[in-house]
Design brief:
Length: 411
Amino acid sequence: MRDGERLAQLEARDSGRLLNDAKAQITFVAEWFNYYAGLADKYTGETISTDQKDMLVYTEPVPVGVVGVIVPWNAPLLLMAWKVAPALAAGCTIVVKPSDYTPTTALAFGELLSESGLPKGAYNVVTGFGPAVGQAITAHPGVNKVAFTGSTATGISVGKSAMTNLTRVTLELGGKSAQIVFEDADIEAAINGIMNGIFIGTGQTCIAGSRLLVHESLHDSLVSELVARARKIRIGSPVDSMTQMGPVVNKIQHDKVLDRIETAKLEGATVECGGGVPPGLEGWFVEPTILTGVRPEMEVAQEEVFGPVLAVMKFRTEDEAIALANNTKYGLAAGVWSQNVHRVHRVARSLRAGTVWINTYRAYSPAAPFGGFGLSGLGRENGIEAMRAYCETKTVWVELAGSTRDPFSIR
Ligand code: NDP
């Protein structure tokens, strides 16, 4: 890919995300644009059959108009592509506000879109701070839709601001996703999925599998294996190809993650590994941290940490596991690890989460809808569902008989 290396370098240097990870995300960006380019001329209206034989009724999707795209710092380009690709395919124009911490890839991508022949003015980038520039977009009467990814608190204020003009919104917000490991799980696969779920991106992902719910018979052995692997994670510079976990994005996030760990300790959690700053490294690094003895009411079991911190809880029965998993105001994702085909579908059906992964974690496709229940968001991104979010539906009625109607009758 011609510009992949440059975009990945910009992304890694801006956000602290691993260069390897950023490169993988750039390939996703290309896939998303490819998918929506293909969908653009296939997303159509329909002819509606009614009981009125002299009427032709059909619908047409109409671009919603100007779309304000507001994205955070954890995966700026990919999360922007999730919005810009379907919005362009629907025929909308776009104003992007990247996070003030990570604005470079939205700007660099704009250069590429100009080069591609996209009409001038179809894609615009405005940089600046959220409360000033973001708020100016969400409250602007000329913006017809806001597509936002970020924290739940900011998402709610974005929604309120947009509602003053009935601006359409989709919100992709926080999470406290549970990974449930049953006694009949393939343990090696589960360990990989748990590590991936919580330590990729230094835990700064909305779908981080930040709660581990494990059957009591496996608890001690699984925790000790996870601790052994967490201690071996290579922490370092995000642009070093050997690094497995980089720093968090900035000092604010660093302080917040360490503060959440301190609160967990005060509330009675046991630090099995990590819990602080790795020695000998300069930067906003946090050790991969595993906490046991977590109770459902603790802050670390309820609030998004957005860092490499895994909160472990035990369960005895399937019902208990489901109740623990659903004991959250969020509902973005969940992972289920079991080799019992009946159980995995039964549990998936009972979980209140927008995405449930069975014996895998963090699988994506542009074709698969993504979004949250509860305080994890509003609406869906990706798939055909995303096209609906960037279109209004127009219904057209055509009189076919050439006759006139009694003006005082509604039939
Ligand atoms: P925010 O949700 O505040 O920021 C996300 C985006 O919204 C950024 O572009 C930000 O701009 C913008 N923004 C901020 N305030 C407003 C506003 N009033 N109106 C419109 N746009 C606004 O996330 P933070 O960066 O402040 O992170 C705070 C916490 O949120 C993190 O500690 C983490 O826990 C969580 N988070 C969750 C994410 C997720 O995907 N679930 C993603 C990022 C953070 P700017 O950055 O320039 O201020």
